[in-house]
Design brief:
Blueprint: H1 5-18, E1 28-29, E2 35-38, E3 41-45, H2 58-71, H3 79-83, H4 86-99, E4 103-107, H5 110-121, E5 127-131, H6 136-145, E6 148-152, H7 157-166, E7 174-179, H8 191-200, E8 204-208, H9 223-226, E9 236-240, E10 250-254, H10 256-265, H11 267-270, H12 277-292, H13 295-314, E11 331-337, H14 339-350, E12 354-355, E13 358-359, E14 369-374, H15 381-400
Parallel strand pairs: 3-12, 5-6, 5-7, 7-8, 8-9
Antiparallel strand pairs: 1-2, 2-3, 4-10, 9-10, 11-14, 13-14
């Protein structure tokens, strides 16, 4: 007798569990800040993308409350029907002004933005050349676009150049797409080199700066500004509002023509209900704080320096050795390789009130399971020292015990 649909699902779930690849959710109660109640247990959060601590900032929450009182909870329709609120328009204007670009277009998520851009701009006769470690939304957007999709070995500029050269005889347009800060490794793309390669081969460069916007560059204007580049070098700029700004959603910034074209052709924008106006109001409040309080970024970079120095003094290797000079971002991975080891150390830390998620395949390549440590401007020096000491203790315990019966932890 053939198995039922649920039987097949249960068998696959059992396989994932036995391979230490099963994932579970943990329930956070209250604001998502550095200090959390997770499944009823107080802990220090070292796995959030809230780099400036704005997700729990009362000023941002107050801006959202005022917008809720004025405009309610939902936008009611897509932006092209009746969902485009004054808060959306103001946020788009302020983002464009901050970045020095003519226009910006607000999306409901980074995933929707990347799919909308790539599916909207690319055609079957076009070629897309992309870093192999790009975010899944860029990978899926590229594949769904119908264009010829070429994945390049991570950060391999020679491979980018070779693929661009091969594409010269291709009849369609050429696009180069890369994360600016890679979300699982914390290293940065060489944007200046990618811009030069794209320019010399008449290709359009698109950059997803989800983890650089609000953190890197002058005034937190992101990775493109940090590299000294502008709209002529990087015509398509995508970033999110749910990380450094502590809100939700994403945006694309570029030329007047780009934004107008996306309004007509980006299906994930055209056919999606517009985000709640209160979320746009919250993001506007966060953007104002980012622009007027540079001390937040200064504290974040001080915390990054403390973590890296403390790890080095304790013999903890963060990131990949060949990337060590290029990981001065809030993302500081501890590569463990084996999924069971990553799960075991994550559980060890959680039991001591430190939440650092174990990241395993398929989120990262096989054999590179890790703890993805992320820092916030709101972490204290004492909290960082506590984490470092606990990691040392946990690594010693890993060497002295077997990993049998390791409990599952969130990824």
């Amino acid at each position: 007798m053939s198995s039922t649909f649920d039987d097949r699902l249960k068998a696959e779930l059992l396989r994932l569990r036995s391979a230490n690849l099963y994932r579970t959710r943990r329930i956070v109660e209250g604001a998502h800040g550095v200090m959390l109640d997770v499944d009823g247990q107080p802990c220090i959060n070292f796995c959030s993308n809230d780099y400036l601590g704005l997700a729990a900032d009362p000023r941002v929450a107050e801006a959202a409350r005022r917008a809720l009182a004025r405009g309610g909870t939902g936008s009611g329709a897509s932006a092209l029907v009746s969902g485009y609120n004054l808060e959306h328009a103001r946020l788009e204007q302020e983002l464009a002004d901050f970045l020095g670009r003519p226009r910006a277009l607000l999306f409901s998520s980074g995933w929707a933005a990347n799919l909308g851009v790539l599916r909207g701009l690319l055609k079957r006769q076009d070629v897309l050349i992309a870093d192999e470690l790009n975010h899944a939304s860029l990978i899926d957007g590229g594949r769904l676009s119908g264009a010829e999709y070429r994945r390049v070995a991570h950060a391999n500029l020679s491979a980018f150049a070779a693929d661009l050269q091969q594409a010269q005889s291709h009849p369609g347009a050429k696009f180069v797409v890369s994360d600016a800060v890679f979300s699982m490794d914390g290293d940065c793309a060489d944007l200046r080199a990618l811009a030069q390669l794209s320019r010399s081969h008449d290709a359009t460069l698109m950059i997803d700066d989800a983890h650089g916007f609000g953190v890197l560059g002058p005034d937190g204007r992101g990775s493109v500004a940090a590299a000294g580049l502008n709209i002529d070098d990087v015509p398509i700029y995508v970033a999110t509002l749910g990380k450094s700004l502590g809100a939700a959603g994403a945006f694309v910034a570029g030329s007047e023509a780009l934004i107008e074209y996306l309004i007509q052709r980006a299906r994930s924008w055209v056919f999606s209900t517009a985000p709640p106006p209160a979320i746009a109001a919250a993001a506007r409040a966060s953007l104002k704080i980012l622009r007027t309080e540079p001390e937040l970024r200064a504290r974040l970079f001080a915390n990054i320096a403390q973590l890296r120095a403390g790890a080095a003094s304790r013999g903890i290797a963060l990131g990949w050795r060949e990337q060590s000079a290029n990981t001065l971002t809030p993302i500081q991975p501890l590569i463990l390789g084996d999924e069971a080891r990553a799960l075991s150390l994550s559980r060890f830390l959680f039991e001591r009130g430190l939440w650092v998620a174990a990241i395993r395949p398929p989120t990262v390549p096989a054999g590179t399971a890790r703890l993805r440590i992320t820092l916030s401007a709101m972490h204290t020096r004492a909290q960082i020292e506590t984490l470092l000491d606990a990691i040392v203790e946990g690594l010693v315990a890993l060497h002295s015990h077997t990993d049998a019966a390791i409990p599952q932890v969130v990824a």
